[in-house]
Amino acid sequence: MIKTTALIGLVLLWVAPIVAQSIVLDGTNFGQNIYIKSPWNTFCIDSVRVNGRFYTGNVNKSIFTISPDSTRVNLGERQVIEVFHSPHCAPQFLNSGAILTSETTVSNVQLDSNGRLSWTGSNDQTGRRLPFKVEHFLVGSWVTVQQIDQKWKTINQYETSISLHAGNNYVKISGFNADAEQSEVKIWTTSSKPALKIDYDPVKKIFQLNQSSPFVILNNKGNEVQSGQGDRVDFSELEPGEYWIFMADQTIHLVEENFALDKNDD
User: Fold this and answer.
1) Both 64 and 109 in a single domain?
2) CATH number of the domain to which 218 belongs
3) What is the DSSP string of 133-144?
4) CA distances from 171 to 116, 142, 150, 161 (A)
5) What is the Cα–Cα distance from 35 to 67, expressed in whole angstroms?
6) What is the pLDDT of residues 118-172, one digit of tens each?
7) N or C terminus: which one in the chain shows less Cβ crowding within 10 Å?
8) 3-class secondary structure per residue, 152-218
9) SS3 97
10) Is the pTM here over 0.90, yes or no?
11) Strand, helix or coil at 98?
């Protein structure tokens, strides 16, 4: 009898691991949908993360949507979308401008004594353009008086008018970039109106003004106790103590029945 021995060779094959690649979109949540496209009829996207959390929606589509409600990212917060995909696959963000912010530079800011405010805005071509905020320093704090949408050319001219009070007026243009530190330009002008003159009547406990002006009275804790508009400020009902009165570009420090007038510093 002839025995036949069969040798079965065990061959070990080393397969290099497939390393997923990724594309990243880093911006701000403005409440807009983000559309992502896979190569035609090739579902090669492995997973998606938004701010480090896995996106649980269906990514096996030619085009799928990441909506603001599905991301747990609050409006105005940073939003980082990372799409992991197979090699030789090229997914795309179809509307990256929905969370990217165009970089804006403000120059040639001018403010005349009648309240005419003008400036030049220069932009790159990528991303959402945030509106300009025009802020006026009124009665001790910055107040947004206008909001102006940006135009869509690379270089744009803007012009508006604001109501000036007597004396020095401080105005700033802000809010036009995602980085707040890069989104503020200040300017000041002296109004064409006569300077505010204040007469003090210690008997009636009023300040008489030569023209109508808004005013705010704060106590020594910074709380508002009185405000209004007019040509006189009546503080006869205030309890004895320390107060700050802001009107036009004037600041009055009132202690009991003594006061001092100071120019308001920006």
Assistant:
1) no
2) 2.60.40
3) EEEEEETTEEEE
4) 11, 9, 18, 11
5) 9
6) 999 998 877 888 899 999 999 888 999 999 999 988 999 999 999 998 889 999 9
7) N
8) CCCEEEEEEECCCCCCEEEEEEECCCCCHHHCEEEEEEECCCCCCCEEEECCCCEEEEEEEEEEEEE
9) helix
10) no
11) helix
